[in-house]
């Protein structure tokens, strides 16, 4: 369903389960990370007010209205994280798997070569940023779209999304389910990694099942204590940033999350990121954090629930779907 065919229902803050118990100040801090970059006059005015150190909960309740946007597809929450890999700036017997920047030819062609062709061809020489020691972790680095490489001297190279080959993403987890190797509830990032490592030949073919390939760029301007850059080119915040489908949810908008399943979550987050697999009005990817522990937590997250967008008051009522008469 297209965005203009989705339904928009204005709710009350009392309709948001757990609203009064959240840390609205943490959400306001995350909102301020990106709101200054919003060009729309409504959002610029709200950002200026947010900059005046208001009561956080009162700020959101006074200037926004919750809007439930639905397109007929069930809600799905997943998690993502910033990986940390071991690597080097020059290839060695250990660090053999290259991390590439985007070639100029890939910018001009859409789609370009497939993952299999890129990894087996010899036309990527000279486009290496670094080399890592694990091709499986490199594959999942591409899924996340950003990450860090720990170098032998203790320094850290930070990577951001630098383009893609233009092919549509195919889920290798879904492919394992289709083949009958696992059922849907068994699949997680760690399960997939373990299966690929136990079955190196079949595992390589499984990775090539996804023709999409992500290129990277060096990020030198983000302090180590801050999160990676999101779609708005600002650092994202663990536990407060969510990736959404911008066809339905405005980038930079506050989003109320009601995640069910294991570890239910009632939290105000900010829509500061996007992802190729994040499609639909009720689809969201929650940024968990950096490193292996965050990765394990993100890999297990696949839950139903409800997503409610906070829009400026006039805009909320302007987009509200009129009831059928």
Description of the molecule:
The structure is a single chain. By secondary structure, the protein is an alpha+beta fold. The protein has eleven helices and 15 strands.
- Beta fraction of the residues? 25-35%
Q: What's the β-strand tally?
A: 15
Total number of helical segments? 11
- Largest sheet entry: 9 strands, mixed
Mean pLDDT: 94
Q: In which range does the helix fraction lie?
A: 25-40%
Based on helices, strands and strand pairing, what is the structural class? alpha+beta
Within the largest sheet, what's the order of strands? 1-2-15-11-12-10-13-3-14
Low-confidence stretches: none
The H-and-E topology, N to C, reads as EHHHEEEEHHEHEEHHHEEEEEHEEH
Q: Rg to the nearest angstrom?
A: 21 Å
| Rough outline | globular
- In whole angstroms, the N-to-C terminal distance is 22 Å
Record keyword descriptors for this entry.
single chain, 325 residues, alpha+beta, nine-stranded mixed β-sheet, six-stranded mixed β-sheet, 27% strand
Summarize the structure.
The chain is α+β, with helices and mostly antiparallel strands. The chain has helices spanning 24-34, 41-50, 56-63, 104-108, 115-120, 135-144, 172-178, 189-198, 200-208, 292-300, 313-319, and strands at residues 7-10, 64-70, 76-82, 84-88, 97-100, 128-132, 147-150, 156-164, 214-219, 241-243, 254-259, 265-273, 283-290, 302-303, 305-312. The mean pLDDT is 94.
Question: What's the structural blueprint in terms of helices and strands?
Answer:
Elements: E1 7-10, H1 24-34, H2 41-50, H3 56-63, E2 64-70, E3 76-82, E4 84-88, E5 97-100, H4 104-108, H5 115-120, E6 128-132, H6 135-144, E7 147-150, E8 156-164, H7 172-178, H8 189-198, H9 200-208, E9 214-219, E10 241-243, E11 254-259, E12 265-273, E13 283-290, H10 292-300, E14 302-303, E15 305-312, H11 313-319
Parallel strand pairs: 3-13, 4-7, 10-12
Antiparallel strand pairs: 1-2, 2-15, 3-14, 4-6, 5-6, 7-8, 8-9, 10-13, 11-12, 11-15
Helix pairs in contact: 8-9
């Amino acid at each position: 369903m297209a965005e203009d065919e989705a339904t928009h229902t204005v709710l009350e803050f009392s309709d948001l389960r757990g609203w009064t118990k959240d840390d609205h100040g943490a959400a306001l801090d995350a909102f301020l990370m990106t709101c200054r970059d919003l060009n729309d006059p409504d959002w610029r005015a709200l950002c200026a007010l947010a900059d005046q150190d208001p009561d956080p909960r009162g700020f959101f309740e006074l200037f926004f209205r919750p809007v439930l946007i639905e397109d007929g597809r069930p809600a799905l929450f997943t998690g993502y994280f910033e990986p940390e890999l071991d690597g080097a700036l020059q290839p060695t017997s250990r660090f053999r798997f290259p991390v590439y920047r985007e070639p100029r030819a890939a910018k001009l062609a859409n789609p370009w070569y497939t993952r299999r062709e890129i990894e087996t061809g010899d036309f990527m020489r000279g486009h290496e940023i670094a080399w890592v020691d694990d091709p499986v972790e490199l594959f999942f680095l591409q899924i996340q779209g950003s990450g860090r490489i720990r170098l032998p001297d203790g320094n850290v190279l930070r990577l951001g999304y630098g383009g893609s080959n233009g092919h549509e993403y195919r889920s290798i987890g879904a492919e394992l389910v289709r083949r009958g190797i696992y059922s849907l509830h068994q699949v997680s990032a760690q399960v997939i990694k373990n299966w690929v490592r136990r079955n190196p030949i079949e595992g390589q073919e499984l990775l090539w099942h996804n023709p999409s390939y992500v290129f990277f760029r060096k990020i030198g301007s983000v302090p180590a204590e801050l999160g990676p850059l999101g779609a708005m080119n600002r650092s994202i915040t663990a536990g407060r940033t969510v990736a959404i489908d911008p066809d339905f949810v405005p980038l930079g908008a506050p989003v109320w999350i009601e995640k069910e399943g294991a570890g239910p979550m009632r939290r105000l987050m900010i829509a500061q990121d996007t992802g190729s697999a994040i499609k639909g009005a009720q689809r969201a990817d929650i940024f968990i954090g950096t490193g292996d522990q965050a990765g394990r937590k993100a890999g297990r997250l696949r839950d139903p629930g409800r997503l409610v967008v906070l829009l400026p008051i006039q805009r909320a009522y302007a987009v509200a779907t009129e009831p059928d008469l």
